[in-house]
Amino acid sequence: MSIAIETATVKPRRAVLEMPEYHPPLAGRDVLRLDFNENTLAPSPLVMDRLKQITAEGLTKYPEREPVERKVAAHLGLEPAQVLLTNGVDEAIHLMCCAFLDEGDEALIATPSFFMYDVNIRMMTRGLVKVQADETLEFPFERVLAAISERTKLIIIPSPNNPTGATASRAQLLAVANAAPHAVLMADEAYFHFHGETVIGDTATTPNLIVARTFSKVYGLANLRIGLLAGNAELLKYLRKVSSPYNVNGVALDCLSVAIEDDAYITWYADQIRVGRERMMGGLDELGVSYFPSAANFVLMKIGPKHAELAAAMRRNGVLVRDRSADPGCDGYVRITIGVGDQVTRGLEALRASLNEIGWKRERVSESASQQVSGEREFE
Ligand SMILES: Cc1ncc(COP(=O)(O)O)c(C=O)c1O
Fold first, then answer.
1. Are residues 257 and 338 in the same domain?
2. Which of 35, 161, 216 to mutate to test the pocket of ligand 1 (most atoms within 8 A of CB)?
3. 111-126 pLDDT, tens per residue?
4. Among 74, 260, 265, 323, which residue has the least CB neighbours within 10 Å?
5. Nearest atom within ligand 1 for CA of residue 226
6. Are 161 and 31 members of one domain?
7. 31 burial via Cβ count (<10 Å: 0-12, 13-18, 19+)
8. What is the pLDDT of residues 313-326, one digit of tens each?
9. Which domain holds residue 65?
10. Ligand 1 binding pocket mutation candidate from 89, 218, 226 (most atoms within 8 A of CB)
11. Could you give the CA distance from residue 155 to residue 366 in angstroms, rounded to a whole number?
12. What average pLDDT does the structure give for the chain?
């Protein structure tokens, strides 16, 4: 069958033409998945039991978010009005940009970081301000503070950050929020459980602070697409206004309400990751591979010019990793997710074999400093 292709004369908004696209490499992920920082095992068994209770009639109904929002809010020690469930943190980022960014506003992020910030900010404004980390890849706190302007409307800071695993401390996050009372700070705590420090309790006293959490990582529900925004009830009202009332489907809501009851499972999984992370970093030391000391469920390894060869060799050896070389300041870096139990051993064994296969030798000096960009302002 041939498909007639007509040329459309209508064009989207300028921002849509100009914004970047995100195409994660999702094909062929049937070997050990150490590439997307997912839970590599399973969600709580309570979730699997709840799935078996899904009925045909249940599927015919529009989803009701509020009862589960009340449960999640109580779980976090917040009022229901302070919590909005979202279709993953991806949607949360989108809603933040829709609610708070007008064309002409500036939004501030530190790079390298999660690419969906870029995509969603540029959908709304040309005012994306990026503060590039130096060669240490630590959170560039002082330069983020210095980049705040009177046009700054939104600041997004992930802690721990992806792809580095670097953290911004609670004191740093609060200092940024306080330095920009005319802007909203979104603290992205997608990897909170692997680190343990949160500013969710500070939302009571910091009215311009909103925290994002995902159920895709430690909870193992990436395929159900659930996240949340939590913070000041007044700001949450605007976010609720721009969100669809049916943004989270009913199967996801049902599963979430039992997943949050199983704290023991979440604690167990997060503990597995902490132990696995130490083993992974110890194994990298033995292999002579340098890396960023991570607070998340992944480690960013410095491989050097053979980064793409390593990712390909790892795939041949049955383990997926993510080449992050295209991220700003990350030339030569490859990210590996921490799995549980023998998945760490398999990851390290595949690494040893792959490094041998590609004839990898440790880089003698750090070359990444030459490619740093700082305080890039795309707005002017
Ligand atoms: C920092 C960060 N925020 C948000 C997300 C997206 O989370 P979700 O699956 O809830 O959309 C990711 C996913 O990798 C991430 O690394």
1. no
2. 216
3. 999 999 999 999 999 9
4. 74
5. 10
6. no
7. middle
8. 999 999 999 999 99
9. 45-262
10. 89
11. 30
12. 94
